[in-house]
């Protein structure tokens, strides 16, 4: 669930991470509309790729495949690896178990972070509201 929130990715990157790993078990109810399923998968991949770009890190998102709950829940698979520009380096299938070894060139991490210096240019003086559950809270 934490993979949907930007704060954990940012903090981990600030602590020196060059790769974020997101092991996942996410899917959809088979009774849902297929178009909704496609949109959900797209949103999941987009948020992970956004973490890569915003933090200058590679992202490895691993998701399971298969059915549970007597066929009512289908895990959508689609594991992928993204570089710090959000480009997909590897895209897994949606219905088959796979084991892949993907080479990631960490020597280019500084290049990405220098080209798009999001970590350097943060406006930390304006972040106080994010420490509250709701901004209007005292």
3D structure, described in words:
With 138 residues, the protein is an alpha+beta fold. The chain has one domain: Carbon-nitrogen hydrolase (Nitrilase/N-carbamoyl-D-aminoacid amidohydrolase). Helix content is 28%, strand content 22%. It is built from 3 helices and 7 strands; from the N terminus they run H-E-E-H-E-E-E-E-E-H. Strands 1-3-6-7 form a 4-stranded mixed β-sheet, covered by helices on one side. A 3-stranded antiparallel β-sheet has the order 2-5-4, covered by helices on one side. Helix 1 runs parallel beside helix 2. The longest helix is centred in the N-terminal third of the chain and has 22 residues. The protein starts with 5 loop residues before the first helix and ends in a 23-residue tail after the last helix.
Total domain modules: 1
Q: Percent of residues in beta strands?
A: 15-25%
Query: Mind telling me the CATH class?
Result: Alpha Beta
End-to-end CA span? 27 Å
CATH architectural designation: 4-Layer Sandwich
Rounded to an integer, what's the Rg over CA atoms?
Answer: 17 Å
CATH topology: Nitrilase/N-carbamoyl-D-aminoacid amidohydrolase
Strand order of the largest sheet: 1-3-6-7
Tell me the total number of β-strands: 7
Uncertain spans: none
**Fourth CATH level, the homologous superfamily:** Carbon-nitrogen hydrolase
Topology diagram in text:
Elements: H1 6-14, E1 19-24, E2 27-29, H2 34-55, E3 58-63, E4 65-68, E5 73-76, E6 80-82, E7 88-91, H3 109-115
Parallel strand pairs: 1-3
Antiparallel strand pairs: 2-5, 3-6, 4-5, 6-7
């Amino acid at each position: 669930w934490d993979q949907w929130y930007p704060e954990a990715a940012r903090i981990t990157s600030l602590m020196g991470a060059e790769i974020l790993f997101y092991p996942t078990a996410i899917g959809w109810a088979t009774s849902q509309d297929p178009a909704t399923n496609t949109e959900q998968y797209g949103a999941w991949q987009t948020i992970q790729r956004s973490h890569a770009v915003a933090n200058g890190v590679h992202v490895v998102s691993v998701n399971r495949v298969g059915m549970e709950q007597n066929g009512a829940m289908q895990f959508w698979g689609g594991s992928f690896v993204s570089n710090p520009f959000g480009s997909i380096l590897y895209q897994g299938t949606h219905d088959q178990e796979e084991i892949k070894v993907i080479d990631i060139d960490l020597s280019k991490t500084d290049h990405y972070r220098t080209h798009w210096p999001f970590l350097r240019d943060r406006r930390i003086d304006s972040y106080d509201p994010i420490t509250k559950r709701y901004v209007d809270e005292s």
